[in-house]
Amino acid sequence: NAGVTQTPKFRVLKTGQSMTLLCAQDMNHEYMYWYRQDPGMGLRLIHYSVGEGTTAKGEVPDGYNVSRLKKQNFLLGLESAAPSQTSVYFCASSSWAEQYFGPGTRLTVT
Amino acid sequence: SQQGEEDPQALSIQEGENATMNCSYKTSINNLQWYRQNSGRGLVHLILIRSNEREKHSGRLRVTLDTSKKSSSLLITASRAADTASYFCATDRSGGGADGLTFGKGTHLIIQP
Fold first, then answer.
1. What number of other Cβ atoms are within 10 A of residue A80's Cβ?
2. A19 touches chain B (CB under 8 A)
3. To the nearest whole angstrom, how far is the Cα of B91 from the nearest Cα of chain A?
4. What does the angle CA B104 – CA A75 – CA A7 come to, to the nearest 5 degrees?
5. Is residue B100 within 8 angstroms of chain A, CB to CB?
6. B95 at the A interface (CB within 8 A)?
7. What pLDDT shows up at residue A42?
8. Alpha carbon distance B3, A58 (integer Å)
9. Helix (H, G, I), strand (E, B) or coil at A39
């Protein structure tokens, strides 16, 4: 069991570029989440999904889009990257309350 | 907005001592969770306490919940160097927990050997 995996681990983007972060889980969880973590802060919810084909906005959704075409995958897209999106991005999955987190993607936007 | 706020922001103790950190939250909850994050890693779930529980134990961890004060505490007994990490409390955003968690800013715990 790999648990929750994230691709890539690191990425540097220029302002205005786009990219997609991939999250995969092998625990058959219904619920999946994308969070961002900034220095000295806790995690903030970007988008989430309660099942295949569904997505919903979290606390800080602006500038991001998501898709959940397969139950095991949850994609996070940045349409036009901005320096304010420099952060560490964590994906998580759950079947109820306890969430399982991936190792994170460190994104820098210059 | 941050639902939970941990206190203190940082804590440094000697190995073998007990570490206590606190969390306050703003709205009613169904449950409260504590997570640990080692430097540069993802979060790991430690313990969940339901709103109708007052205390819960798991190994060296003891969690209390006071819903009247909207606060929780995490006690780590007989601390070890491996306990050095950041600790976050998290509450469900709404009823069932399916729509994600709200995290505090965390307590950074350092265990001195």
1. 11
2. no
3. 10
4. 85
5. yes
6. no
7. 85
8. 14
9. coil
Residues in chain B where the model's pLDDT stays below 70: 1-4, 95-97
What is the rounded distance in angstroms from the CA atom of residue A36 to the CA atom of residue A31?
A: 17
Tokens of A92: 């998580």
| Tokens found for residue A85 | 């999106």
Q: What is the mean pLDDT of residues A21-45?
A: 95
Per-residue exposure over A58-78, b if at least 16 CB sit within 10 Å of its own CB, e if not? bbbbeebebebeebeebbbeb
> What is d(CA B10, CA B20) in angstroms, rounded to the nearest whole number?
11
R_g of chain B computed on alpha carbons:
13
In chain A, the DSSP E strands lie at 4-7, 10-13, 19-25, 31-37, 43-49, 56-57, 64-67, 73-78, 87-94, 100-101, 105-109
Could you tell me how far CA A101 lies from the centroid of its own chain? 10
Residue matched to tokens 């889009």? A65
Model confidence band, residue A40 (pLDDT cutoffs 50, 70, 90)? confident
Q: List, in sequence order, every residue forming a beta bridge with A75; answer none if it has no partner.
A: A22, A67
Has residue A37 got a pLDDT over 90?
yes
Where does residue A9 rank: exposed (0-12), middle (13-18), buried (19+ CB within 10 A)?
exposed
Name which of A102, A95, A98, A96 is nearest A76 in CA terms: A102
Contact at CB, B100 and A48, closer than 8 angstroms: yes
Q: Is the pLDDT of residue A30 over 70?
A: yes
